[in-house]
Specification:
This protein has about 140 residues and is mostly helical. The chain has two domains: about 5-40; about 55-130, Cytochrome Bc1 Complex, Chain D, domain 2, CATH 1.10.760.10. It has five helices and two strands, in the order ααββααα. The chain has helices at about 5-40, 40-45, 60-75, 95-105, 120-130; strands at about 55, 60. The longest helix is centred in the N-terminal third of the chain and has 34 residues, at about 5-40. The radius of gyration is 25 Å and the shape is rod-shaped. The model is unreliable at about 40-45 (pLDDT under 50).
Length: about 140
């Protein structure tokens, strides 16, 4: 009959326990990612999500930014930021996301502010779209 030292048996038990707990954690993370992907509306449309900027720890969504831009900004600024029918200026020089967010939120001169009608996430997304996606 072979007797093992108690410390050796305990150590093997702890190794198995740690491996089991880690495998459960990895499985949970995997299933959470699958669940989040299933909730993403852009995956259903087949549109890739482009990560171009993070603002206050939030990853902006330029697909949503394009939607907001086309609905809110394109009449005055044009579909490509070239300036439109409503007297909006060209956005070709809009390269600073903080300045663009301030203009969207508060307006400037003849441009009204949209801080009361757009959510903060929409302001961040449309600003990222203007800075990263429109021609400059």
């Amino acid at each position: 009959m072979v007797f093992r030292h108690k410390k050796e048996v305990f150590s093997q038990y702890m190794k198995l326990k740690v491996c089991f707990i880690l495998s459960i954690c990895f499985c949970c993370i995997y299933f959470i990612q699958i669940a989040n992907a299933a909730k993403n509306p852009y995956l259903e449309k087949g549109e890739p999500i482009r990560i171009v900027a993070t603002i206050d720890g939030r990853i902006t969504d330029t697909n949503n930014g394009r939607t907001v831009y086309e609905a809110t900004c394109a009449f005055c600024h044009g579909l490509q930021g070239e300036g439109g029918l409503g007297g909006g200026i060209s956005l070709f020089s809009a390269t600073n996301i903080e300045v663009v967010m301030d203009r969207v939120r508060n307006g400037l001169e003849i441009m009204p502010g949209f801080g009361g009608s757009l959510t903060e996430e929409e302001i961040q997304d449309v600003s990222a779209y203007v800075v990263e996606e429109l021609p400059h």
